[in-house]
């Protein structure tokens, strides 16, 4: 047995822990209940610009004189016994470098007695720099263009090609949305044109001369996203600088919040408040700043499913879903495939200096049988790839020209359907269900209770299905 941070552990655990402490890319700082450091790993030392030996065994406030009982999260947790999760801090470390971390601080409680606290920190400096640059860039673009147009590819509704009924219905709603400042929620799979719709609504609309800013909510950690959206106020303790967020930058214009269901629930609640009250408060600030921003949000997951899964707040959904646009996936609008194919051929004739005027019927047939997980973007990329293979004198786009896209015969999605020739969806699902139940029974040695809990369903439900499909013949 060994002693590590006041905890008795065996030697294998100790080896494991030491490896995690040493090689994990996470800073770890443990103090005991008298505020003395017992564990301080090299990642934490690097983050804070200190040497491990300087810190081990010393009182926390002796090493970090700028902290006090109220500002040190470790000491706070010792006192309150309540963990603090995911707090972001920007500070100058002991070598004078500006560091941004996201950390969680957790009390160590043994037999109801507090024996210490552990802080786990991750370096976000790089991401923070990127997010700052993003804001600065957006600001600079805005100023260069005298508040008018940031440099982005602009789409309008006539760029959205399609004759399918559902697509035309979506475009009609978008047309109406142009004339209104109400929030819009756009739902569509990846590559169906959500960004095109969002931009069209802005650039065909009453706010077209104002700023349009798009922000992806999935790519950036929550704590930074808050600063990006609402801005930051100079904070003595957090070291944050004063900066306006994209709500202020887009004031009077439109803000596209992409992948809204990836935003944390806490931030979703803050966003809802802003939308309801019409003002924002910068992170670390006290002033309410009135804003008038039109919100367009997108999601590539059915919002009702997201609500059920708990990744989208219902109240925010209702607030955003004032105008609702559903873009059908490409496989549900096969009547658009030929039109889009010719549209992209003519686009790439121009770009690549080619002269294709026809696509062979077997290509179109294969296109109509394909599942299109990447939707219109995928179709466009296929055609761009094929158009690179043809010569100046070729007139017809053939199957052989799609060498680089190996899409049709090897597509996994297509293979799924090969197993279910001419079956309806309920028949396919029934077949899959039978197979899954059979496997679960086999794995659980035909014990129905075990198989039911393996499948996460009630015993009675499983029994009914076994009867329905006449399974259980060993
Ligand atoms: N109806 C369409 N007509 C013409 N081009 C389209 C259409 N739909 C999509 N595209 C093309 O596909 C590309 C992808 O569209 P967009 O970026 O709007 O998709 P998205 O739904 O936002 O995808 P993601 O969820 O991956 O962000 C566009 O840049 C455009 O070239
Ligand atoms: Mg998009």
Would you mind describing this structure in some detail?
This protein is 43% helix and 17% strand. It has helices at residues 11-23, 42-48, 52-55, 60-63, 73-80, 125-144, 165-178, 194-203, 222-230, 246-249, 265-277, 303-309, 314-320, 337-352, 361-369, 375-389, 412-418, 425-443, 448-455, 459-469, and strands spanning 2-4, 7-9, 27-32, 37-40, 84-92, 98-110, 113-123, 184-187, 212-216, 254-258, 279-280, 289-290, 294-299, 323-326, 358-359, 396-397. The model is unreliable at 1-8 and 145-150 (pLDDT under 50). It has 4 domains: 2-123, PAS domain (Beta-Lactamase, 2-Layer Sandwich); 127-326, Rossmann fold (3-Layer(aba) Sandwich); 332-415, Orthogonal Bundle (Helicase, Ruva Protein, domain 3); 425-469, Arc Repressor Mutant, subunit A (Orthogonal Bundle), CATH 1.10.10. The chain is built from 20 helices and 16 strands. A hairpin with an 8-residue loop joins strand 11 and strand 12 (289-290). It is of the alpha/beta class and 474 residues long. The longest helix has 20 residues, at 125-144. Strands 4-3-7-6-5 form a 5-stranded antiparallel beta sheet, sandwiched between helices. The protein has a 5-stranded parallel beta sheet with strand order 9-10-13-8-14. The two termini are 50 Å apart. Bound molecules: adenosine-5'-triphosphate and magnesium ion (MG). Residues 194-195, 258 line the site of magnesium ion.
Distance between the termini: 50 Å
Rg on CA atoms, Å: 29 Å
Low-pLDDT runs:
1-8, 145-150
Largest sheet, in brief, is: 5 strands, antiparallel
CATH homologous superfamily title of the largest domain = P-loop containing nucleotide triphosphate hydrolases
Helix content: 40-55%
Mean pLDDT: 85
Number of helical elements: 20
Query: What class would the helix/strand composition place it in?
Result: alpha/beta
